[in-house]
Recover the amino acids of this structure.
Protein backbone atom coordinates (compact mmCIF):
# COMPACT_ATOMS: atom_id res chain seq x y z
CA UNK A 1 0.00 0.00 0.00
CA UNK A 2 1.39 3.40 -0.88
CA UNK A 3 1.28 5.77 2.04
CA UNK A 4 -1.30 8.54 2.19
CA UNK A 5 -0.10 12.05 2.83
CA UNK A 6 -2.79 14.55 3.72
CA UNK A 7 -1.42 17.92 2.62
CA UNK A 8 0.20 16.97 -0.70
CA UNK A 9 -2.97 15.13 -1.68
CA UNK A 10 -5.10 18.14 -0.79
CA UNK A 11 -2.86 20.43 -2.80
CA UNK A 12 -2.98 18.10 -5.80
CA UNK A 13 -6.78 17.91 -5.58
CA UNK A 14 -7.07 21.69 -5.44
CA UNK A 15 -4.66 22.16 -8.33
CA UNK A 16 -6.30 19.52 -10.50
CA UNK A 17 -9.81 20.83 -9.86
CA UNK A 18 -8.65 24.35 -10.65
CA UNK A 19 -7.04 23.23 -13.88
CA UNK A 20 -9.99 21.07 -14.93
CA UNK A 21 -12.61 23.71 -14.29
CA UNK A 22 -10.67 26.28 -16.26
CA UNK A 23 -9.89 23.82 -19.01
CA UNK A 24 -13.60 23.12 -19.29
CA UNK A 25 -14.31 26.82 -19.64
CA UNK A 26 -11.74 27.15 -22.37
CA UNK A 27 -12.82 23.91 -24.02
CA UNK A 28 -16.16 25.55 -24.65
CA UNK A 29 -14.35 28.43 -26.33
CA UNK A 30 -12.24 25.98 -28.33
CA UNK A 31 -15.34 24.08 -29.33
CA UNK A 32 -17.03 27.25 -30.52
CA UNK A 33 -13.93 28.42 -32.34
CA UNK A 34 -13.23 25.10 -34.04
CA UNK A 35 -16.83 24.66 -35.07
CA UNK A 36 -16.78 28.17 -36.49
CA UNK A 37 -13.59 27.54 -38.43
CA UNK A 38 -14.97 24.29 -39.80
CA UNK A 39 -18.02 26.16 -41.06
CA UNK A 40 -15.99 29.02 -42.56
CA UNK A 41 -17.04 31.38 -39.80
CA UNK A 42 -14.98 33.36 -37.30
CA UNK A 43 -16.48 32.41 -33.97
CA UNK A 44 -16.57 34.49 -30.80
CA UNK A 45 -14.12 37.38 -31.18
CA UNK A 46 -15.65 40.31 -29.34
CA UNK A 47 -14.52 39.72 -25.75
CA UNK A 48 -10.79 40.27 -25.60
CA UNK A 49 -8.35 39.37 -28.36
CA UNK A 50 -9.70 36.41 -30.38
CA UNK A 51 -12.52 36.12 -27.86
CA UNK A 52 -10.05 35.01 -25.26
CA UNK A 53 -12.15 36.22 -22.32
CA UNK A 54 -15.37 34.74 -23.67
CA UNK A 55 -15.34 31.85 -21.14
CA UNK A 56 -15.16 34.32 -18.25
CA UNK A 57 -18.12 36.22 -19.59
CA UNK A 58 -20.00 32.99 -20.22
CA UNK A 59 -19.33 31.87 -16.67
CA UNK A 60 -20.49 35.17 -15.22
CA UNK A 61 -23.60 34.94 -17.36
CA UNK A 62 -24.31 31.42 -16.08
CA UNK A 63 -24.07 32.63 -12.49
CA UNK A 64 -26.09 35.82 -12.66
CA UNK A 65 -28.88 34.56 -14.86
CA UNK A 66 -32.22 34.05 -13.17
CA UNK A 67 -32.28 30.56 -11.72
CA UNK A 68 -35.76 29.27 -12.41
CA UNK A 69 -37.12 26.24 -10.59
CA UNK A 70 -40.43 25.52 -12.33
CA UNK A 71 -43.44 24.80 -10.15
CA UNK A 72 -44.10 21.41 -11.64
CA UNK A 73 -40.74 19.83 -10.83
CA UNK A 74 -39.75 17.47 -8.05
CA UNK A 75 -37.55 19.95 -6.23
CA UNK A 76 -35.20 17.64 -4.33
CA UNK A 77 -34.13 15.59 -7.32
CA UNK A 78 -34.28 18.57 -9.63
CA UNK A 79 -31.65 20.32 -7.55
CA UNK A 80 -29.63 17.18 -6.86
CA UNK A 81 -29.36 16.06 -10.50
CA UNK A 82 -26.84 18.62 -11.82
CA UNK A 83 -24.78 18.20 -8.66
CA UNK A 84 -24.61 14.45 -9.22
CA UNK A 85 -23.70 14.90 -12.86
CA UNK A 86 -20.81 17.21 -12.02
CA UNK A 87 -19.60 15.48 -8.89
CA UNK A 88 -19.32 12.06 -10.50
CA UNK A 89 -17.54 13.51 -13.50
CA UNK A 90 -15.01 15.24 -11.24
CA UNK A 91 -14.62 12.19 -9.01
CA UNK A 92 -13.81 9.96 -11.96
CA UNK A 93 -10.67 11.94 -12.60
CA UNK A 94 -9.20 10.87 -9.26
CA UNK A 95 -7.14 7.94 -10.54
CA UNK A 96 -6.12 9.34 -13.90
CA UNK A 97 -2.36 9.86 -14.16
CA UNK A 98 -1.78 13.30 -15.65
CA UNK A 99 1.99 13.39 -15.30
CA UNK A 100 4.96 11.14 -14.70
CA UNK A 101 4.17 8.08 -12.62
CA UNK A 102 5.98 4.99 -11.52
CA UNK A 103 4.33 1.63 -11.03
CA UNK A 104 3.64 0.50 -7.45
CA UNK A 105 5.84 -2.41 -6.35
CA UNK A 106 4.72 -5.94 -6.97
CA UNK A 107 4.12 -8.33 -4.13
CA UNK A 108 7.26 -10.12 -3.00
CA UNK A 109 7.03 -13.92 -3.02
CA UNK A 110 8.11 -15.73 0.13
CA UNK A 111 10.80 -18.20 -0.85
CA UNK A 112 9.94 -21.72 0.20
CA UNK A 113 13.44 -23.19 0.23
CA UNK A 114 14.40 -21.20 3.34
CA UNK A 115 13.16 -21.66 6.90
CA UNK A 116 9.76 -19.97 7.22
CA UNK A 117 10.84 -17.19 9.60
CA UNK A 118 13.86 -16.23 7.55
CA UNK A 119 11.90 -16.24 4.34
CA UNK A 120 9.25 -13.98 5.83
CA UNK A 121 11.87 -11.58 7.17
CA UNK A 122 13.69 -11.37 3.85
CA UNK A 123 10.44 -10.85 1.98
CA UNK A 124 9.37 -8.10 4.39
CA UNK A 125 12.69 -6.34 3.97
CA UNK A 126 12.42 -6.53 0.20
CA UNK A 127 8.87 -5.23 0.27
CA UNK A 128 9.94 -2.39 2.57
CA UNK A 129 12.77 -1.50 0.18
CA UNK A 130 10.36 -1.50 -2.79
CA UNK A 131 7.98 0.74 -0.90
CA UNK A 132 10.82 3.08 -0.04
CA UNK A 133 11.91 3.44 -3.66
CA UNK A 134 8.29 3.82 -4.79
CA UNK A 135 7.73 6.61 -2.29
CA UNK A 136 10.75 8.48 -3.59
CA UNK A 137 9.14 8.86 -7.00
CA UNK A 138 6.16 11.16 -6.97
CA UNK A 139 3.24 9.84 -8.98
CA UNK A 140 1.10 12.55 -10.48
CA UNK A 141 -2.43 11.36 -9.96
CA UNK A 142 -4.82 12.48 -7.25
CA UNK A 143 -4.95 8.97 -5.85
CA UNK A 144 -1.84 7.12 -7.01
CA UNK A 145 -1.43 3.41 -6.56
CA UNK A 146 -5.12 2.49 -6.56
CA UNK A 147 -5.31 -1.14 -7.62
CA UNK A 148 -8.87 -1.10 -8.93
CA UNK A 149 -7.73 1.79 -11.11
CA UNK A 150 -9.69 2.01 -14.30
CA UNK A 151 -12.57 0.03 -12.83
CA UNK A 152 -13.08 2.91 -10.41
CA UNK A 153 -13.35 5.38 -13.27
CA UNK A 154 -15.83 3.23 -15.12
CA UNK A 155 -18.04 2.66 -12.12
CA UNK A 156 -18.02 6.31 -11.06
CA UNK A 157 -18.54 7.72 -14.51
CA UNK A 158 -21.46 5.40 -15.15
CA UNK A 159 -23.04 6.92 -12.04
CA UNK A 160 -23.27 10.12 -14.05
CA UNK A 161 -26.31 8.63 -15.72
CA UNK A 162 -28.13 9.12 -12.43
CA UNK A 163 -27.69 12.84 -12.84
CA UNK A 164 -29.24 12.67 -16.28
CA UNK A 165 -32.08 10.32 -15.34
CA UNK A 166 -32.98 12.22 -12.18
CA UNK A 167 -32.78 15.50 -14.05
CA UNK A 168 -35.01 14.27 -16.83
CA UNK A 169 -37.49 12.56 -14.58
CA UNK A 170 -37.81 15.24 -11.92
CA UNK A 171 -38.32 17.90 -14.61
CA UNK A 172 -41.78 16.45 -15.17
CA UNK A 173 -41.53 17.17 -18.86
CA UNK A 174 -42.02 14.71 -21.70
CA UNK A 175 -38.98 15.80 -23.66
CA UNK A 176 -36.78 15.58 -20.59
CA UNK A 177 -38.01 12.09 -19.74
CA UNK A 178 -37.46 10.94 -23.31
CA UNK A 179 -33.93 12.29 -23.24
CA UNK A 180 -33.26 10.66 -19.90
CA UNK A 181 -34.64 7.31 -21.06
CA UNK A 182 -32.52 7.38 -24.17
CA UNK A 183 -29.52 8.29 -22.12
CA UNK A 184 -29.96 5.46 -19.67
CA UNK A 185 -30.42 2.91 -22.44
CA UNK A 186 -27.44 4.29 -24.30
CA UNK A 187 -25.04 4.42 -21.39
CA UNK A 188 -25.97 0.98 -20.10
CA UNK A 189 -25.49 -0.46 -23.58
CA UNK A 190 -22.14 1.15 -24.19
CA UNK A 191 -20.76 0.29 -20.75
CA UNK A 192 -20.41 -3.29 -21.93
CA UNK A 193 -18.14 -2.83 -24.95
CA UNK A 194 -16.32 -0.12 -23.00
CA UNK A 195 -15.43 -2.50 -20.20
CA UNK A 196 -14.71 -5.43 -22.47
CA UNK A 197 -12.43 -3.50 -24.79
CA UNK A 198 -9.89 -2.76 -22.09
CA UNK A 199 -9.90 -6.29 -20.65
CA UNK A 200 -7.40 -7.37 -23.29
CA UNK A 201 -5.08 -4.58 -22.24
CA UNK A 202 -5.51 -5.53 -18.61
CA UNK A 203 -4.72 -9.16 -19.39
CA UNK A 204 -1.31 -8.16 -20.68
CA UNK A 205 -0.37 -5.48 -18.17
CA UNK A 206 -1.60 -7.71 -15.39
CA UNK A 207 -3.26 -4.93 -13.44
CA UNK A 208 -6.14 -2.48 -13.55
CA UNK A 209 -3.78 0.06 -12.05
CA UNK A 210 -3.13 2.72 -14.68
CA UNK A 211 0.43 3.32 -13.52
CA UNK A 212 1.17 -0.33 -14.22
CA UNK A 213 -0.57 -0.12 -17.58
CA UNK A 214 1.69 2.77 -18.52
CA UNK A 215 4.73 0.94 -17.23
CA UNK A 216 3.88 -2.11 -19.32
CA UNK A 217 3.54 0.07 -22.40
CA UNK A 218 6.86 1.78 -21.68
CA UNK A 219 8.50 -1.63 -21.78
CA UNK A 220 6.54 -3.33 -24.55
CA UNK A 221 5.27 -0.59 -26.85
CA UNK A 222 2.00 1.30 -26.90
CA UNK A 223 -1.22 -0.68 -26.70
CA UNK A 224 -2.58 0.94 -29.86
CA UNK A 225 -0.04 -1.20 -31.73
CA UNK A 226 -1.19 -4.44 -30.12
CA UNK A 227 -4.88 -3.77 -29.54
CA UNK A 228 -6.09 -1.56 -32.43
CA UNK A 229 -9.60 -3.03 -32.51
CA UNK A 230 -9.95 -2.62 -28.76
CA UNK A 231 -8.98 1.02 -29.17
CA UNK A 232 -11.64 1.66 -31.81
CA UNK A 233 -14.28 -0.01 -29.65
CA UNK A 234 -13.11 1.92 -26.61
CA UNK A 235 -13.15 5.21 -28.46
CA UNK A 236 -16.62 4.67 -29.89
CA UNK A 237 -17.92 3.67 -26.47
CA UNK A 238 -16.53 6.69 -24.67
CA UNK A 239 -18.02 8.94 -27.33
CA UNK A 240 -21.35 7.37 -26.44
CA UNK A 241 -20.65 7.58 -22.71
CA UNK A 242 -19.94 11.28 -22.99
CA UNK A 243 -23.16 11.88 -24.94
CA UNK A 244 -21.11 13.46 -27.69
CA UNK A 245 -22.10 13.48 -31.32
CA UNK A 246 -22.69 11.18 -33.15
CA UNK A 247 -24.25 9.71 -30.00
CA UNK A 248 -25.84 12.78 -28.42
CA UNK A 249 -29.36 11.42 -28.43
CA UNK A 250 -30.13 12.47 -24.84
CA UNK A 251 -30.09 16.08 -25.91
CA UNK A 252 -30.91 15.84 -29.63
CA UNK A 253 -32.06 19.44 -30.04
CA UNK A 254 -34.08 18.90 -33.17
CA UNK A 255 -36.18 16.16 -31.62
CA UNK A 256 -36.23 16.83 -27.89
CA UNK A 257 -35.94 20.63 -27.52
CA UNK A 258 -33.07 20.31 -25.06
CA UNK A 259 -33.39 16.72 -23.93
CA UNK A 260 -32.87 16.04 -20.25
CA UNK A 261 -31.91 19.63 -19.45
CA UNK A 262 -34.87 21.30 -21.14
CA UNK A 263 -36.20 22.65 -17.82
CA UNK A 264 -32.84 23.75 -16.47
CA UNK A 265 -31.50 27.25 -16.51
CA UNK A 266 -28.65 29.29 -15.13
CA UNK A 267 -25.85 27.55 -13.27
CA UNK A 268 -27.76 24.26 -12.95
CA UNK A 269 -27.65 23.99 -16.72
CA UNK A 270 -24.02 25.04 -16.54
CA UNK A 271 -23.26 22.20 -14.14
CA UNK A 272 -24.61 19.65 -16.61
CA UNK A 273 -22.30 21.13 -19.21
CA UNK A 274 -19.42 21.11 -16.77
CA UNK A 275 -20.02 17.43 -16.11
CA UNK A 276 -20.12 16.61 -19.81
CA UNK A 277 -16.90 18.43 -20.60
CA UNK A 278 -15.13 17.05 -17.53
CA UNK A 279 -16.12 13.63 -18.75
CA UNK A 280 -14.54 14.47 -22.09
CA UNK A 281 -11.28 15.42 -20.41
CA UNK A 282 -11.24 12.29 -18.25
CA UNK A 283 -11.91 9.94 -21.13
CA UNK A 284 -9.36 11.70 -23.32
CA UNK A 285 -6.77 11.12 -20.63
CA UNK A 286 -7.89 7.49 -20.38
CA UNK A 287 -7.45 6.96 -24.10
CA UNK A 288 -4.01 8.54 -23.92
CA UNK A 289 -3.04 6.48 -20.89
CA UNK A 290 -4.50 3.11 -21.76
CA UNK A 291 -3.74 2.99 -25.48
CA UNK A 292 -1.12 5.63 -26.20
CA UNK A 293 1.40 5.03 -23.48
CA UNK A 294 0.53 7.86 -21.08
CA UNK A 295 3.68 9.87 -20.44
CA UNK A 296 5.81 7.53 -22.53
CA UNK A 297 7.46 8.80 -25.69
CA UNK A 298 9.39 6.61 -28.12
CA UNK A 299 13.15 6.76 -28.78
CA UNK A 300 14.03 6.80 -25.08
CA UNK A 301 13.00 10.44 -24.67
CA UNK A 302 11.29 9.73 -21.37
CA UNK A 303 13.50 6.99 -19.97
CA UNK A 304 15.13 9.02 -17.23
CA UNK A 305 13.93 11.16 -14.37
CA UNK A 306 15.80 14.41 -15.03
CA UNK A 307 13.77 17.57 -14.54
CA UNK A 308 13.34 18.18 -18.26
CA UNK A 309 12.15 14.64 -18.71
CA UNK A 310 9.59 15.17 -15.98
CA UNK A 311 8.35 18.23 -17.86
CA UNK A 312 8.38 16.27 -21.10
CA UNK A 313 6.25 13.56 -19.51
CA UNK A 314 3.67 16.13 -18.44
CA UNK A 315 3.69 17.56 -21.94
CA UNK A 316 3.42 14.11 -23.52
CA UNK A 317 0.37 12.96 -21.61
CA UNK A 318 -1.22 16.41 -21.85
CA UNK A 319 -0.58 16.58 -25.57
CA UNK A 320 -2.01 13.15 -26.21
CA UNK A 321 -5.12 13.94 -24.17
CA UNK A 322 -5.40 17.28 -25.95
CA UNK A 323 -5.33 15.51 -29.27
CA UNK A 324 -8.27 13.34 -28.25
CA UNK A 325 -10.20 16.32 -26.93
CA UNK A 326 -9.73 18.02 -30.30
CA UNK A 327 -10.82 14.79 -31.98
CA UNK A 328 -14.02 14.87 -29.90
CA UNK A 329 -14.71 18.38 -31.08
CA UNK A 330 -13.83 17.79 -34.72
CA UNK A 331 -15.91 14.62 -34.85
CA UNK A 332 -18.86 16.44 -33.33
CA UNK A 333 -18.91 18.91 -36.19
CA UNK A 334 -18.40 16.26 -38.84
CA UNK A 335 -20.70 13.32 -38.22
CA UNK A 336 -24.49 13.42 -38.16
CA UNK A 337 -26.40 11.90 -35.28
CA UNK A 338 -27.33 8.21 -35.27
CA UNK A 339 -30.94 7.19 -35.21
CA UNK A 340 -31.86 5.55 -31.91
CA UNK A 341 -32.34 2.05 -33.33
CA UNK A 342 -29.04 2.37 -35.19
CA UNK A 343 -27.37 3.42 -31.96
CA UNK A 344 -28.67 0.37 -30.17
CA UNK A 345 -27.93 -2.05 -32.98
CA UNK A 346 -24.36 -0.78 -33.23
CA UNK A 347 -23.85 -1.41 -29.53
CA UNK A 348 -25.55 -4.80 -29.26
CA UNK A 349 -25.11 -6.31 -32.71
CA UNK A 350 -21.69 -5.03 -33.63
CA UNK A 351 -19.58 -3.71 -30.80
CA UNK A 352 -20.40 -6.20 -28.06
CA UNK A 353 -19.83 -9.30 -30.23
CA UNK A 354 -16.67 -7.73 -31.66
CA UNK A 355 -15.37 -6.88 -28.21
CA UNK A 356 -16.13 -10.40 -27.02
CA UNK A 357 -14.42 -12.11 -29.93
CA UNK A 358 -11.49 -9.75 -29.54
CA UNK A 359 -11.21 -10.62 -25.87
CA UNK A 360 -11.27 -14.33 -26.64
CA UNK A 361 -8.56 -13.73 -29.22
CA UNK A 362 -6.38 -11.95 -26.67
CA UNK A 363 -6.95 -14.73 -24.14
CA UNK A 364 -6.02 -17.30 -26.76
CA UNK A 365 -2.80 -15.54 -27.69
CA UNK A 366 -1.90 -15.01 -24.05
CA UNK A 367 -2.62 -18.60 -23.05
CA UNK A 368 -0.55 -20.18 -25.82
CA UNK A 369 2.14 -17.50 -25.55
CA UNK A 370 2.01 -16.57 -29.22
CA UNK A 371 3.82 -13.37 -30.23
CA UNK A 372 1.72 -10.34 -29.32
CA UNK A 373 1.80 -9.09 -32.91
CA UNK A 374 -0.70 -11.85 -33.68
CA UNK A 375 -3.32 -9.87 -31.77
CA UNK A 376 -2.87 -6.68 -33.79
CA UNK A 377 -3.06 -8.51 -37.11
CA UNK A 378 -5.91 -10.78 -36.10
CA UNK A 379 -7.99 -8.04 -34.50
CA UNK A 380 -7.74 -5.89 -37.61
CA UNK A 381 -8.75 -9.01 -39.49
CA UNK A 382 -11.76 -9.25 -37.19
CA UNK A 383 -12.72 -5.68 -37.99
CA UNK A 384 -12.51 -6.23 -41.74
CA UNK A 385 -14.21 -9.62 -41.41
CA UNK A 386 -17.18 -8.20 -39.53
CA UNK A 387 -17.52 -5.45 -42.12
CA UNK A 388 -17.41 -8.09 -44.84
CA UNK A 389 -20.07 -10.15 -43.09
CA UNK A 390 -22.24 -7.07 -42.83
CA UNK A 391 -21.83 -6.26 -46.50
CA UNK A 392 -23.14 -9.75 -47.33
CA UNK A 393 -26.39 -9.22 -45.45
CA UNK A 394 -29.51 -8.70 -47.59
CA UNK A 395 -30.20 -5.01 -48.11
CA UNK A 396 -33.32 -3.10 -47.18
CA UNK A 397 -36.56 -4.01 -48.96
CA UNK A 398 -37.08 -2.17 -52.20
CA UNK A 399 -39.38 0.80 -52.15
CA UNK A 400 -42.22 1.62 -54.50
CA UNK A 401 -42.44 5.12 -55.88
CA UNK A 402 -45.91 6.32 -56.77
CA UNK A 403 -45.45 8.50 -59.87
CA UNK A 404 -48.29 10.75 -58.74
CA UNK A 405 -46.50 11.60 -55.53
CA UNK A 406 -43.38 12.79 -57.26
CA UNK A 407 -40.75 12.68 -54.57
CA UNK A 408 -42.30 11.14 -51.48
CA UNK A 409 -42.27 7.45 -50.82
CA UNK A 410 -45.67 5.99 -51.42
CA UNK A 411 -45.13 2.95 -49.27
CA UNK A 412 -42.75 0.15 -48.60
CA UNK A 413 -43.38 -3.34 -49.85
CA UNK A 414 -41.57 -6.20 -48.27
CA UNK B 1 -57.74 4.80 -59.98
CA UNK B 2 -55.13 2.16 -59.40
CA UNK B 3 -51.62 2.86 -60.55
CA UNK B 4 -50.63 0.86 -63.56
CA UNK B 5 -47.62 -1.35 -63.22
CA UNK B 6 -45.68 0.44 -65.92
CA UNK B 7 -45.96 3.69 -63.98
CA UNK B 8 -44.55 2.26 -60.80
CA UNK B 9 -40.90 2.82 -60.14
CA UNK B 10 -39.06 0.58 -57.75
CA UNK B 11 -36.00 1.86 -56.01
CA UNK B 12 -33.57 -0.06 -53.92
CA UNK B 13 -31.30 1.37 -51.28
CA UNK B 14 -27.75 1.05 -52.53
CA UNK B 15 -25.93 -1.78 -50.82
CA UNK B 16 -22.85 -0.87 -48.83
CA UNK B 17 -19.75 -2.71 -49.88
CA UNK B 18 -16.91 -3.86 -47.67
CA UNK B 19 -15.23 -0.46 -47.79
CA UNK B 20 -18.33 1.41 -46.65
CA UNK B 21 -19.15 -1.13 -43.98
CA UNK B 22 -15.79 -0.46 -42.35
CA UNK B 23 -17.14 3.02 -41.46
CA UNK B 24 -13.65 4.24 -40.57
CA UNK B 25 -12.63 5.34 -44.12
CA UNK B 26 -15.92 7.21 -44.45
CA UNK B 27 -15.34 8.94 -41.13
CA UNK B 28 -11.79 9.80 -42.15
CA UNK B 29 -12.93 11.34 -45.42
CA UNK B 30 -15.59 13.30 -43.56
CA UNK B 31 -12.98 14.58 -41.15
CA UNK B 32 -10.75 15.52 -44.07
CA UNK B 33 -13.56 17.59 -45.55
CA UNK B 34 -14.27 19.48 -42.35
CA UNK B 35 -10.61 19.95 -41.52
CA UNK B 36 -10.01 21.32 -45.00
CA UNK B 37 -12.55 24.03 -44.27
CA UNK B 38 -10.49 25.26 -41.34
CA UNK B 39 -8.01 26.67 -43.84
CA UNK B 40 -10.55 28.13 -46.21
CA UNK B 41 -11.35 31.85 -46.31
CA UNK B 42 -14.00 33.02 -43.89
CA UNK B 43 -17.37 34.15 -45.15
CA UNK B 44 -18.28 36.14 -42.05
CA UNK B 45 -18.93 39.85 -42.56
CA UNK B 46 -18.27 41.74 -39.35
CA UNK B 47 -21.16 44.10 -39.88
CA UNK B 48 -20.73 47.34 -38.00
CA UNK B 49 -17.09 47.55 -39.06
CA UNK B 50 -17.46 46.01 -42.50
CA UNK B 51 -20.33 47.37 -44.53
CA UNK B 52 -21.98 44.90 -46.84
CA UNK B 53 -21.27 45.14 -50.54
CA UNK B 54 -24.78 45.68 -51.84
CA UNK B 55 -25.79 45.02 -55.44
CA UNK B 56 -26.39 48.18 -57.52
CA UNK B 57 -30.12 47.56 -57.78
CA UNK B 58 -30.58 47.32 -54.02
CA UNK B 59 -33.76 49.00 -52.85
CA UNK B 60 -33.40 50.82 -49.55
CA UNK B 61 -34.69 54.11 -48.14
CA UNK B 62 -36.32 56.60 -50.50
CA UNK B 63 -35.04 59.98 -51.42
CA UNK B 64 -36.55 62.99 -53.16
CA UNK B 65 -34.18 64.32 -55.77
CA UNK B 66 -33.38 68.02 -56.20
CA UNK B 67 -32.93 69.75 -59.51
CA UNK B 68 -29.84 71.83 -60.33
CA UNK B 69 -31.24 74.82 -58.47
CA UNK B 70 -31.75 72.79 -55.34
CA UNK B 71 -35.54 72.76 -55.60
CA UNK B 72 -37.50 69.61 -55.12
CA UNK B 73 -37.92 67.87 -58.45
CA UNK B 74 -41.29 66.40 -57.65
CA UNK B 75 -44.25 67.88 -59.53
CA UNK B 76 -46.90 66.36 -57.26
CA UNK B 77 -48.49 64.24 -59.97
CA UNK B 78 -49.53 61.47 -57.55
CA UNK B 79 -48.25 58.80 -59.93
CA UNK B 80 -46.05 57.24 -57.25
CA UNK B 81 -48.74 57.14 -54.59
CA UNK B 82 -51.14 55.65 -57.14
CA UNK B 83 -48.62 53.00 -58.12
CA UNK B 84 -47.70 52.19 -54.53
CA UNK B 85 -49.16 48.79 -53.57
CA UNK B 86 -48.73 49.51 -49.88
CA UNK B 87 -50.31 52.97 -49.97
CA UNK B 88 -47.47 54.43 -47.99
CA UNK B 89 -46.98 57.69 -49.90
CA UNK B 90 -49.00 60.71 -48.87
CA UNK B 91 -48.72 63.87 -50.98
CA UNK B 92 -50.40 67.23 -50.56
CA UNK B 93 -50.04 69.27 -53.74
CA UNK B 94 -49.98 73.05 -53.97
CA UNK B 95 -49.56 75.54 -56.82
CA UNK B 96 -45.94 75.81 -57.67
CA UNK B 97 -44.12 78.99 -56.61
CA UNK B 98 -41.84 78.57 -59.61
CA UNK B 99 -42.87 79.40 -63.18
CA UNK B 100 -41.50 76.25 -64.82
CA UNK B 101 -44.13 73.86 -63.40
CA UNK B 102 -47.71 73.87 -62.28
CA UNK B 103 -47.62 72.09 -58.95
CA UNK B 104 -45.18 71.11 -56.29
CA UNK B 105 -45.63 68.93 -53.19
CA UNK B 106 -46.46 70.97 -50.13
CA UNK B 107 -45.95 67.89 -48.01
CA UNK B 108 -44.58 64.56 -49.13
CA UNK B 109 -44.65 61.82 -46.49
CA UNK B 110 -43.55 58.21 -46.90
CA UNK B 111 -44.33 55.72 -44.16
CA UNK B 112 -41.11 53.72 -44.22
CA UNK B 113 -42.61 51.07 -41.96
CA UNK B 114 -45.45 50.46 -44.33
CA UNK B 115 -43.33 50.52 -47.48
CA UNK B 116 -42.50 47.17 -48.99
CA UNK B 117 -39.53 48.54 -50.96
CA UNK B 118 -40.84 47.26 -54.26
CA UNK B 119 -39.51 50.23 -56.22
CA UNK B 120 -42.72 50.82 -58.14
CA UNK B 121 -42.81 54.50 -57.11
CA UNK B 122 -39.44 54.97 -58.72
CA UNK B 123 -40.67 53.33 -61.90
CA UNK B 124 -43.85 55.37 -61.96
CA UNK B 125 -42.25 58.75 -61.45
CA UNK B 126 -42.30 60.73 -64.74
CA UNK B 127 -39.70 63.28 -63.59
CA UNK B 128 -37.29 60.92 -61.81
CA UNK B 129 -37.90 62.69 -58.54
CA UNK B 130 -38.27 59.70 -56.25
CA UNK B 131 -35.57 57.07 -56.06
CA UNK B 132 -34.64 54.25 -53.76
CA UNK B 133 -31.17 54.43 -52.28
CA UNK B 134 -28.93 51.76 -50.80
CA UNK B 135 -29.49 52.96 -47.23
CA UNK B 136 -30.75 49.90 -45.44
CA UNK B 137 -30.09 50.62 -41.77
CA UNK B 138 -33.20 52.66 -41.05
CA UNK B 139 -33.92 52.94 -37.38
CA UNK B 140 -36.32 54.90 -35.27
CA UNK B 141 -37.50 54.94 -31.71
CA UNK B 142 -41.14 55.46 -32.62
CA UNK B 143 -43.52 55.02 -35.53
CA UNK B 144 -43.58 58.78 -35.99
CA UNK B 145 -39.84 58.85 -36.57
CA UNK B 146 -40.24 56.40 -39.40
CA UNK B 147 -42.66 58.68 -41.26
CA UNK B 148 -40.20 60.41 -43.58
CA UNK B 149 -41.42 63.89 -44.59
CA UNK B 150 -40.24 66.05 -47.45
CA UNK B 151 -37.28 67.60 -45.59
CA UNK B 152 -36.12 64.18 -44.45
CA UNK B 153 -36.37 62.71 -47.92
CA UNK B 154 -34.51 65.67 -49.40
CA UNK B 155 -31.82 65.26 -46.78
CA UNK B 156 -31.48 61.63 -47.81
CA UNK B 157 -30.77 62.94 -51.27
CA UNK B 158 -28.12 65.34 -49.95
CA UNK B 159 -26.62 62.51 -48.03
CA UNK B 160 -26.49 59.97 -50.83
CA UNK B 161 -25.97 61.92 -54.06
CA UNK B 162 -22.21 62.03 -53.68
CA UNK B 163 -21.82 58.38 -52.73
CA UNK B 164 -20.91 56.41 -55.80
CA UNK B 165 -23.37 53.70 -54.96
CA UNK B 166 -26.40 55.90 -55.53
CA UNK B 167 -25.82 58.12 -58.53
CA UNK B 168 -28.72 60.28 -59.57
CA UNK B 169 -29.79 57.81 -62.13
CA UNK B 170 -31.59 59.63 -64.89
CA UNK B 171 -31.28 63.07 -66.49
CA UNK B 172 -29.17 64.15 -63.59
CA UNK B 173 -30.43 67.23 -61.85
CA UNK B 174 -32.52 68.57 -64.72
CA UNK B 175 -36.26 68.49 -64.80
CA UNK B 176 -37.40 66.22 -67.56
CA UNK B 177 -39.85 67.02 -70.32
CA UNK B 178 -42.89 65.76 -68.55
CA UNK B 179 -42.62 68.48 -65.94
CA UNK B 180 -42.96 71.29 -68.41
CA UNK B 181 -46.24 73.18 -68.24
CA UNK B 182 -48.52 72.63 -71.19
CA UNK B 183 -47.64 75.04 -74.01
CA UNK B 184 -51.17 75.96 -74.95
CA UNK B 185 -51.92 77.66 -71.65
Amino acid sequence: MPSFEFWPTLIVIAAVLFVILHTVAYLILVERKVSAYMQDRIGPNRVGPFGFFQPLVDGVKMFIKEDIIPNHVDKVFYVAAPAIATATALLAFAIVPFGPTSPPPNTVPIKSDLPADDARRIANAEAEFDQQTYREHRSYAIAPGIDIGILFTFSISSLAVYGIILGGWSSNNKYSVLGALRSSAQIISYEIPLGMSILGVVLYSGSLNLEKVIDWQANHGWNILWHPLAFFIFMTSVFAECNRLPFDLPEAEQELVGGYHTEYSSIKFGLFFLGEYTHMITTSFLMAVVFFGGWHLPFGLTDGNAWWQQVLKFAAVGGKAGFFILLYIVVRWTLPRFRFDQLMSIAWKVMIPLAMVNLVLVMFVREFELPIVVISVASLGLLVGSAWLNSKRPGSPRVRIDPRMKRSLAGTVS
Amino acid sequence: MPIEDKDVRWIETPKLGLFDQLYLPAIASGLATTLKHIFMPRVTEQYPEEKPDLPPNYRGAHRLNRDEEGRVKCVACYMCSTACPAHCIDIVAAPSPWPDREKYPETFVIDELRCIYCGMCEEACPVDAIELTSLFDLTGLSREQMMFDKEKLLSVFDQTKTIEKDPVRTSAGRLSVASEPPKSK
Notes: Residues 200 and 362 of chain A are 6 Å apart (CA to CA). Chain A has two domains: 59-101+143-391, 103-136.
